[in-house]
Design a protein that fits this description.
Distance between the termini: 25 Å
Number of helices: 1
Order of helices and strands: H
Strand content: under 5%
Helix content: 40-55%
């Protein structure tokens, strides 16, 4: 979710009931997304 106070912050807002497996999946998908973003930025010479 976007935060108005600091646009560089990414907040995870899971439901009140979430399993450890669901957290692991969310973290894994997020990490893959960051890795792909970094690769893309490097390919463009922005990192």
């Amino acid at each position: 979710a976007y935060t108005l106070n600091n646009p560089r912050v990414i907040r995870f807002e899971p439901p009140l009931i979430v399993s450890a497996e669901q957290v692991d999946t969310a973290v894994s998908v997020f990490a893959e997304s960051v890795d792909e973003s970094v690769k893309g930025l490097k390919a463009l010479g922005l990192l």
